[in-house]
Amino acid sequence: RGELSSTTVAEVPESATLDIPELPTITPATSSSVVASNMPDLVVQYGEPRTATTMQFQALCVAMLLVHSDQPQSVKCKFTVLPKPDFNENRRRKGNVQKFQVLKSHDERFPANALLAGNKSRKKVWIFATADNRTAGLDGDLQDWRPTAAHLSEEVKAEVKYVQPTGLLSLRGYRVVSDLQPIFNLTDNQTEQLLEYMRYFDVLRQCCGAQMSSSY
Question: What is the pTM for the complete model shown?
Answer without folding.
Answer: 0.79
